[in-house]
Design goal:
The chain is α+β, with helices and mostly antiparallel strands. The chain contains five helices and seven strands. The strands form two sheets. It has a five-stranded mixed beta sheet. Strands 2-3 form a two-stranded antiparallel sheet. Helix 4 links the parallel strand 5 and strand 6. The protein is globular.
Length: 159
C-alpha cells in the first residue's frame, strides 16, 4: 500500500470556464491556468504521483508545453493512472475536498465522482469528493480562487 497527498490552487478570473472534477459548472468566472485548471483533478494527480514518488504534475505536464494548453485534466488524469498501472498499482480509494466560497458545488458532486471513478478505473464508492467554504476567510473566502486537497491510497496489484 502507498499513500499520497495533493494540493492545488488556481485564481478565479473572468472569461474562463469553471471546470471541477471534469464538470463544467455555471459560474461568472473560471479558473486561470494553462490547461482547464481543474484544481480538484490537479490535486488528485499530485497525490497519485506523490504516492509513488514520481514528482508532480508540473514535471509530467509542464505549462510551457503547448500540447497541454487548454487540455482536459481528465485526459491528464488518465495518463497518470496509466503510469500507476505500468508500475503495478491501482487506486484503492481517494478522499478529496474542494475549498470554495462560491458557487455551491453539492449538485455537481455526484457527476464529479463518476468522472473521477471512470478515469481512475475504480468504482464510484472508492471516490470521495466533498466541498467546503472558509467562512469568508482567506483567498477562497474572498472569492479570489479555489483550492483542493486530495489523499489517495494505492494498492499493489497481485500477480
Amino acid at each position: 500500500m502507498r499513500v499520497g497527498i495533493g494540493y492545488d490552487v488556481h485564481a478565479l478570473v473572468e472569461e474562463r470556464r469553471l471546470i471541477l472534477g471534469g464538470v463544467e459548472i455555471p459560474y461568472e468566472r473560471g479558473l486561470l491556468g494553462h490547461s482547464d485548471a481543474d484544481v480538484l483533478i490537479h490535486a488528485l494527480m499530485d497525490a497519485l504521483l506523490g504516492a509513488l514518488a514520481l514528482g508532480d504534475i508540473g514535471a509530467h505536464f509542464p505549462d510551457r508545453d503547448p500540447r497541454y494548453s487548454g487540455i482536459s485534466s481528465l485526459v491528464l488524469l488518465e495518463r497518470v493512472v496509466e503510469l500507476l498501472g505500468n508500475r503495478g498499482y491501482r487506486v484503492e480509494n481517494i478522499d478529496s475536498v474542494i475549498v470554495a466560497e462560491r458557487p455551491k458545488l453539492a449538485p455537481f458532486i455526484p457527476q464529479m465522482r463518476l468522472n473521477l471513478a471512470r478515469a481512475l478505473k475504480t468504482e464510484v464508492e472508492n471516490v470521495s469528493v466533498k466541498a467546503t467554504t472558509t467562512e469568508r476567510l482567506g483567498f477562497a473566502g474572498r472569492g479570489e480562487g479555489i483550492g483542493a486537497q486530495a489523499v489517495v491510497c494505492l494498492e499493489k496489484v497481485k500477480v
